[in-house]
């Protein structure tokens, strides 16, 4: 593989923070019985509930496989746009584009390579092409990278800083043979950023290999929410604490130390699979709202209070995604915001 750095694109682009205004949110309709079996109908209902919750705040476009648009329409109703495109799976945070805004006001986006989190599920060729197809549908500029990268790996503050994890982006199942320095430079170049903050990540995550969106998100530049587990003996809690310590030892692109708003993980929820996403921070921001997971446990009230402190001017809507999280993700994983 030729890893020679290419020239920086001439037109300036910016990756907005997720907390900035949106034009819409994208989702992708689940349809794979071979992957989800008997849970597929419940999973589809959960996706519909998330889409309808977000639609209270902003438009939603749902990508659906051409053979499954009728099923999507039947459950989504008339208010949600359905876009028929080839897809393999339903995690558009990872397979969709990383949207950018051009300095001339136009819409742009990065189309990363996608290999289903290190070839964990096949096929993935349609999802590898999905970002470009979504951008073409929006008549947006397509900026291509051959770096294997998923949107859930990226936390951007809209002000020059990116937070990522080593366990995901440097995993040999994504980018074998590429150095940390090369990956960092490609991220900076593609997203027009100034600094990458590396966290160690999560070796216990068997699906995404420790995406950042399972532990951390930006509230605004210089301020993050970060998950914790109150049990000092919990192994995952110690991993979260190690990542938080790594974050606190660094500064952002403007030289600021990070202000941290803690949010509990769903520590009182029993995992029903090896890849169960026991996360409240895996929420979606919308215009004036936050759509966050609920599991019907006391930890959920603690998490909701933390989100209210972080986003006091937004209305919080909770959605039961119990049918989704055993597959390894929650609301952030199934959504992708398009900036205004």
UniProtKB/TrEMBL annotation:
<dbReference type="GO" id="GO:0009446">
    <property type="term" value="P:putrescine biosynthetic process"/>
</dbReference>
<dbReference type="InterPro" id="IPR007466">
    <property type="entry name" value="Peptidyl-Arg-deiminase_porph"/>
</dbReference>
<keyword id="KW-0378">Hydrolase</keyword>
<protein>
    <submittedName>
        <fullName>Agmatine deiminase family protein</fullName>
    </submittedName>
</protein>
<dbReference type="GO" id="GO:0047632">
    <property type="term" value="F:agmatine deiminase activity"/>
</dbReference>
<dbReference type="GO" id="GO:0004668">
    <property type="term" value="F:protein-arginine deiminase activity"/>
</dbReference>
<dbReference type="Pfam" id="PF04371">
    <property type="entry name" value="PAD_porph"/>
</dbReference>
């Amino acid at each position: 593989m030729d890893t020679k750095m290419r020239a920086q694109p001439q037109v300036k682009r910016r990756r907005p923070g997720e907390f900035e205004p949106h034009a819409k949110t994208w989702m992708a309709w689940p349809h794979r019985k071979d992957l989800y079996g008997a849970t597929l109908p419940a999973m589809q209902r959960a996706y519909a509930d998330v889409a309808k919750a977000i639609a209270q705040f902003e438009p939603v476009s749902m990508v659906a496989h051409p053979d499954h648009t009728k099923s999507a329409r039947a459950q989504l109703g008339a208010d949600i746009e359905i876009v028929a495109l080839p897809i393999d799976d339903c995690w558009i945070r990872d397979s969709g584009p990383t949207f950018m805004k051009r300095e001339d006001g136009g819409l742009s986006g990065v189309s990363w390579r996608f290999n289903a989190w290190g070839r964990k599920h096949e096929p993935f060729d349609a999802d590898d092409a999905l970002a470009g197809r979504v951008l073409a549908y929006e008549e947006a500029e397509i900026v291509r990278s051959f770096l294997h990268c998923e949107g859930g790996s990226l936390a951007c503050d809209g002000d020059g800083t990116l937070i990522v994890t080593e366990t995901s982006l440097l995993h040999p199942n994504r980018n074998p043979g590429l150095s940390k320095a090369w990956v960092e430079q490609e991220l900076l170049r593609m997203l027009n950023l100034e600094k990458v903050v590396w966290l160690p990540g999560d070796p216990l995550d068997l699906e995404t290999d420790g995406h950042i969106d399972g532990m951390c998100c930006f509230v605004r530049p210089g301020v993050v929410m970060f998950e914790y587990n109150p049990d000092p003996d919990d192994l995952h809690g110690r991993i979260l604490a190690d990542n938080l310590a790594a974050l606190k030892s660094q500064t952002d692109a403007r030289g600021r130390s990070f202000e941290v708003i803690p949010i509990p993980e769903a520590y009182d929820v029993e995992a029903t699979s090896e890849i169960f996403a026991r996360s409240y921070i895996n929420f979606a921001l919308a215009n004036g709202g936050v759509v966050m997971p609920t599991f019907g446990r006391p930890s959920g009230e603690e998490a909701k209070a933390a989100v209210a402190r972080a986003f006091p001017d937004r209305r919080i809507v909770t959605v039961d995604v119990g049918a989704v999280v055993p597959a390894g993700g929650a609301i952030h994983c199934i959504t992708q915001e398009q900036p205004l």
